[in-house]
Amino acid sequence: PRIPQDAALATTFGRRRPEDGHIDWTWEAKRIYNLVRAVTHPFPGAFTFAGGRKLLVWWCFPEEKDPTVPKTLPCGTVLSTAPLRVLAGNGTAVRLERVQWADSTEERPPLSKEDVMDGMTFGERYLRQGDLLGLREDQVDLLSRKEPLFRARGEHGHTGDTDTNRRNGRSHDA
Questions:
Q1: What is the SS3 assignment for 100?
Q2: Which residues are CB-contacts of 124 (< 8 A; sequence separation ≥ 6)?
Q3: Which residue has the higher pLDDT, 36 or 161?
Q4: What is the pLDDT of residue 173?
Q5: What is the model's pLDDT at position 122?
Q6: Smallest Cα–Cα separation from 63: which of 86, 82, 40?
Q7: Residue 129 in contact with residue 80, Cβ under 8 Å?
Q8: Which of 23, 159, 160, 168 could form a disulfide linkage to 152, CB 3.0–4.6 angstroms apart?
Protein backbone atom coordinates (compact mmCIF):
# COMPACT_ATOMS: atom_id res chain seq x y z
CA PRO A 1 0.00 0.00 0.00
CA ARG A 2 1.24 3.45 -0.87
CA ILE A 3 1.76 6.02 1.83
CA PRO A 4 1.19 9.63 0.78
CA GLN A 5 4.26 11.82 1.19
CA ASP A 6 4.05 14.51 3.84
CA ALA A 7 5.17 17.67 2.02
CA ALA A 8 6.16 19.27 5.34
CA LEU A 9 8.78 16.52 5.90
CA ALA A 10 10.04 16.35 2.29
CA THR A 11 13.44 17.69 1.30
CA THR A 12 14.76 18.76 -2.07
CA PHE A 13 18.19 18.95 -3.60
CA GLY A 14 19.21 21.46 -6.22
CA ARG A 15 20.18 20.48 -9.71
CA ARG A 16 23.63 18.97 -10.30
CA ARG A 17 26.15 21.53 -11.49
CA PRO A 18 29.51 20.90 -13.23
CA GLU A 19 31.42 22.23 -10.21
CA ASP A 20 29.97 19.36 -8.15
CA GLY A 21 32.59 17.17 -9.86
CA HIS A 22 35.53 19.11 -8.38
CA ILE A 23 37.89 16.71 -6.57
CA ASP A 24 38.82 17.78 -3.06
CA TRP A 25 42.13 16.01 -2.39
CA THR A 26 41.63 16.33 1.37
CA TRP A 27 38.91 13.69 1.08
CA GLU A 28 39.91 10.08 1.66
CA ALA A 29 40.58 7.96 -1.43
CA LYS A 30 37.33 5.99 -1.15
CA ARG A 31 35.24 9.18 -1.21
CA ILE A 32 37.13 10.49 -4.26
CA TYR A 33 36.64 7.11 -5.95
CA ASN A 34 32.89 7.30 -5.26
CA LEU A 35 32.73 10.85 -6.65
CA VAL A 36 34.50 9.77 -9.86
CA ARG A 37 32.15 6.78 -10.24
CA ALA A 38 29.11 9.01 -9.70
CA VAL A 39 30.01 11.66 -12.29
CA THR A 40 31.82 9.65 -14.97
CA HIS A 41 30.44 9.22 -18.52
CA PRO A 42 27.92 10.41 -19.65
CA PHE A 43 28.11 13.15 -17.00
CA PRO A 44 30.63 16.02 -17.14
CA GLY A 45 33.14 14.08 -15.03
CA ALA A 46 35.20 14.63 -11.92
CA PHE A 47 38.04 17.11 -12.31
CA THR A 48 41.07 18.69 -10.72
CA PHE A 49 43.68 21.14 -11.93
CA ALA A 50 47.32 20.52 -12.85
CA GLY A 51 49.40 23.62 -13.39
CA GLY A 52 46.22 25.65 -13.76
CA ARG A 53 44.96 23.36 -16.52
CA LYS A 54 41.70 21.43 -16.01
CA LEU A 55 42.23 17.67 -15.81
CA LEU A 56 39.18 15.39 -16.06
CA VAL A 57 39.31 12.10 -14.16
CA TRP A 58 37.15 9.39 -15.72
CA TRP A 59 38.33 6.41 -13.70
CA CYS A 60 40.46 5.81 -10.64
CA PHE A 61 41.03 3.34 -7.82
CA PRO A 62 41.41 4.02 -4.10
CA GLU A 63 44.53 2.78 -2.33
CA GLU A 64 45.14 2.16 1.34
CA LYS A 65 47.39 4.25 3.57
CA ASP A 66 51.04 4.08 2.61
CA PRO A 67 53.17 4.32 5.76
CA THR A 68 56.21 5.35 3.68
CA VAL A 69 54.58 8.62 2.54
CA PRO A 70 55.79 11.56 4.67
CA LYS A 71 53.00 13.07 6.77
CA THR A 72 54.20 16.55 5.77
CA LEU A 73 53.17 16.15 2.11
CA PRO A 74 50.04 18.14 1.23
CA CYS A 75 46.99 16.38 -0.18
CA GLY A 76 47.01 16.47 -3.98
CA THR A 77 50.74 15.70 -4.26
CA VAL A 78 51.68 13.40 -7.14
CA LEU A 79 53.29 10.37 -5.47
CA SER A 80 54.29 8.63 -8.70
CA THR A 81 53.75 9.12 -12.42
CA ALA A 82 53.74 5.46 -13.56
CA PRO A 83 51.27 4.51 -12.24
CA LEU A 84 49.83 7.98 -11.66
CA ARG A 85 49.15 8.09 -7.92
CA VAL A 86 47.98 11.15 -5.96
CA LEU A 87 47.96 11.65 -2.20
CA ALA A 88 44.47 12.02 -0.74
CA GLY A 89 43.21 12.69 2.78
CA ASN A 90 44.28 10.72 5.83
CA GLY A 91 47.35 9.34 4.04
CA THR A 92 45.39 7.37 1.45
CA ALA A 93 46.16 7.57 -2.28
CA VAL A 94 44.21 7.53 -5.53
CA ARG A 95 45.53 5.78 -8.64
CA LEU A 96 44.28 7.71 -11.68
CA GLU A 97 43.52 5.29 -14.52
CA ARG A 98 41.66 7.33 -17.16
CA VAL A 99 42.28 11.04 -17.43
CA GLN A 100 41.87 13.76 -20.02
CA TRP A 101 42.83 17.40 -20.35
CA ALA A 102 39.57 19.33 -20.66
CA ASP A 103 40.61 20.43 -24.17
CA SER A 104 41.86 17.05 -25.51
CA THR A 105 40.98 13.37 -25.89
CA GLU A 106 40.72 10.81 -23.11
CA GLU A 107 43.87 8.94 -22.09
CA ARG A 108 43.34 5.29 -21.21
CA PRO A 109 45.86 3.13 -19.41
CA PRO A 110 48.21 1.29 -21.77
CA LEU A 111 47.32 -2.29 -22.60
CA SER A 112 50.85 -3.08 -23.68
CA LYS A 113 54.21 -1.35 -24.10
CA GLU A 114 53.25 -0.49 -27.71
CA ASP A 115 50.18 1.43 -26.48
CA VAL A 116 52.31 3.90 -24.51
CA MET A 117 52.93 7.09 -26.51
CA ASP A 118 56.64 7.81 -26.92
CA GLY A 119 57.29 5.08 -24.35
CA MET A 120 55.65 7.20 -21.64
CA THR A 121 52.37 7.15 -19.73
CA PHE A 122 50.19 10.23 -19.29
CA GLY A 123 51.70 10.89 -15.86
CA GLU A 124 55.25 10.59 -17.15
CA ARG A 125 54.58 12.93 -20.08
CA TYR A 126 52.84 15.73 -18.22
CA LEU A 127 53.54 15.48 -14.49
CA ARG A 128 56.42 14.99 -12.08
CA GLN A 129 56.53 13.31 -8.72
CA GLY A 130 55.92 16.06 -6.17
CA ASP A 131 53.66 18.19 -8.41
CA LEU A 132 50.57 19.47 -6.63
CA LEU A 133 47.15 18.86 -8.19
CA GLY A 134 44.09 20.94 -7.43
CA LEU A 135 45.46 24.43 -8.05
CA ARG A 136 43.57 26.64 -10.48
CA GLU A 137 45.47 28.87 -12.90
CA ASP A 138 45.20 31.85 -10.56
CA GLN A 139 46.78 29.79 -7.76
CA VAL A 140 49.70 28.31 -9.71
CA ASP A 141 51.83 31.44 -9.53
CA LEU A 142 51.57 31.33 -5.75
CA LEU A 143 53.93 28.36 -5.77
CA SER A 144 57.62 28.85 -6.30
CA ARG A 145 58.56 26.33 -8.98
CA LYS A 146 62.06 25.79 -10.29
CA GLU A 147 60.76 24.03 -13.41
CA PRO A 148 57.48 24.41 -15.31
CA LEU A 149 54.84 21.75 -14.82
CA PHE A 150 54.67 21.07 -18.55
CA ARG A 151 57.83 20.10 -20.41
CA ALA A 152 59.16 22.06 -23.38
CA ARG A 153 59.56 20.50 -26.85
CA GLY A 154 62.38 18.04 -27.07
CA GLU A 155 61.83 16.70 -23.59
CA HIS A 156 60.04 13.39 -24.02
CA GLY A 157 58.40 14.49 -27.29
CA HIS A 158 55.84 16.82 -25.67
CA THR A 159 55.46 20.37 -26.95
CA GLY A 160 54.73 21.83 -23.51
CA ASP A 161 52.18 24.33 -22.33
CA THR A 162 52.88 27.65 -24.05
CA ASP A 163 51.57 29.93 -21.29
CA THR A 164 53.38 28.06 -18.51
CA ASN A 165 56.62 27.97 -20.48
CA ARG A 166 56.34 31.66 -21.37
CA ARG A 167 55.79 32.58 -17.68
CA ASN A 168 58.88 30.58 -16.78
CA GLY A 169 61.03 32.17 -19.49
CA ARG A 170 61.09 29.12 -21.76
CA SER A 171 60.21 28.91 -25.41
CA HIS A 172 59.12 25.92 -27.46
CA ASP A 173 62.64 25.73 -28.87
CA ALA A 174 64.22 25.22 -25.43
A1: strand
A2: 81, 82, 156
A3: 36
A4: 41
A5: 83
A6: 86
A7: yes
A8: 160
